[in-house]
Amino acid sequence: MxxxxxxxxxxxxxxxxxxxxxxxxxxxxxxxLRWRSPLDNIEHLLDRANKKDxxxxxxxxxxxxxxxxxxxxxSKPDYVFHLAAQSYPKTSFESPLDTYNTNxxxxxxxxxxxxxxxxxxxxxxxxxxxxxxxxxxxxxxxxEECSFHPASPYAISKVGTDLIGRYHAEAFNQKxxxxxxxxxxxxxxxxxxxxxxxxxxxxxxxxxxxSPVIKVGNLDSLRTFADVRDAVRAYHMMxxxxxxxxxxxxxxxxxxxxxxxxxETLLSMxxxxxxxxxxxxxxxxxxxxxLQIPDTxxxxxxxxxxxxxxxxxxxxDLLNYWRNRIKSxxxxxxx
Length: 335
Known about the structure:
The chain is of the alpha/beta class. The protein has eleven helices and twelve strands.
């Protein structure tokens, strides 16, 4: 029986990875979460978790070494997908020390704990395209050897995550592969991220919950979008198709547009008309990584992975996710 440990199990990516593995493999899943983690994203899996039907929940925190050792002892993983992080770039400007501790030291704690176990699992360390930060146009598209120029405490923390992963692969021959995933979104995306915040605001307007004004940050930032369901498929392929110890890959979609164009796509799908757009200074980052266009050929050549879900479907599904949540009667901040 193949056993897999997923950190950040209740996050957008962790929950979609669980869905994908349950559908396409016979693996037993151990989902790592904090005791206080919201369960909204895995609500559809809780019945299986209660029955221990291929889903086992294990409580641990990246900031608690004893808990990590317990989670690893319980799960005895053959594969580890390390997705847990303080993942909000905007929040990291206000909470940089928590971001550094969770993402850098937390990753070190996890990899050290795995290093001393009897099993030698394949490990996915999830860094971020944010490590590249402010990239000049002459370096586009961004390949894996592009220099790091992080533009937020979050991005700095992911540089640390990236380097710690590669260090453990080289120093201890741990079977670690690192990814720099570019923007990926879809259902269950947290409302602190631009596209999900826009979608939620649109749906709240459709339901008369707020005035018809969308609050935005920097609309000129250029992004390359992928669907989270394509992303988790890529992660599985990465660890199962001729994996290479110490490898590191850019992964991303093919739809490139400005944040403002993404907003216009969402607005064109709305049931409401005459929605105004208003820049909210609190949504602007002190520094922004504004040219995020990847060269993913190293990964696609290695695995054959290609995005399958269109940008338009991703946006429709994101809107419908918020429509269903608001229809359920849940209350939300208008952020």
